[in-house]
């Protein structure tokens, strides 16, 4: 886990303690089993983006606070320059850059995802809402439920994010934009 990743659990714990929410209530309120939630706060387990949203909602903060330690500032438009998104390596070979992290009260989360086929695929996830993936570069195999879809540059998929889903690069590296709406 890199330094940015270890800061997120620290921020979560500090905010929870400032708000005087005990760890058991936090786990219950977010619907996360206590043993797993405790690993998230200790930095022993990667926190999926969907869980970060649950935690941010419970703490009544924008997810940007958890990712960067700062409040989002923009309310009419937010420009994210190339390579300047908030970057987090989720799993080995799977990293993302939040592209709208500085926009207040977002109703969707656009993320640039980079994948490397030489690394193991990330575990499948499910979360509330809907998700859109648009392949920018390379080939991405997207699994939604029991169905697999091979997408190439320019292809896209829109799906119910409550279904278990995952993406993996095929034959090298790939990039796709995902837009998650909770």
Describe this structure in words.
27% of the residues lie in helices and 34% in strands. With 182 residues, the chain is of the alpha+beta class. β1 and β2 form a beta hairpin. It is globular and about 50 Å long.
List keywords for this structure.
single chain, 182 residues, alpha+beta, 34% strand, globular
Number of strands: 7
How many strands, what sense, and barrel or not for the largest sheet? 7 strands, antiparallel
Proportion of residues in extended strands: 25-35%
Number of helices: 5
The poorly predicted ranges are none
Shape: globular
* Class per helix and strand makeup: alpha+beta
Distance from N terminus to C terminus (CA atoms, Å) equals 26 Å
Helix content: 25-40%
Report mean pLDDT, rounded to a whole number.
Answer: 90
The H/E string reads: HHHHHEEEEEEE
Computed Rg = 16 Å
């Amino acid at each position: 886990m890199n330094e940015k990743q270890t800061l997120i659990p620290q921020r979560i714990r500090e905010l929870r303690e400032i708000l005087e929410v005990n760890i058991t209530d936090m786990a219950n309120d977010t619907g996360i089993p206590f043993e797993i939630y405790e690993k998230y706060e200790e930095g022993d387990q990667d926190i999926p983006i969907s869980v970060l949203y649950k935690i941010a909602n419970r703490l009544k903060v924008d997810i940007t606070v958890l990712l960067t330690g700062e409040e989002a500032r923009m309310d009419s438009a937010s420009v994210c320059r190339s390579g300047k998104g908030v970057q987090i390596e989720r799993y080995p070979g799977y990293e993302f850059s939040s592209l709208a992290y500085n926009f207040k009260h977002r109703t969707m989360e656009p993320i640039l995802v980079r994948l490397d086929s030489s690394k193991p695929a990330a575990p499948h996830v499910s979360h509330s809402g809907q998700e859109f993936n648009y392949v920018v570069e390379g080939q991405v195999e997207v699994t939604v439920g029991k169905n697999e879809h091979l997408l190439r540059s320019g292809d896209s998929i829109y799906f119910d994010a409550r279904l278990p889903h995952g993406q993996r690069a095929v034959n090298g590296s790939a990039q796709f934009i995902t837009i998650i709406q909770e």
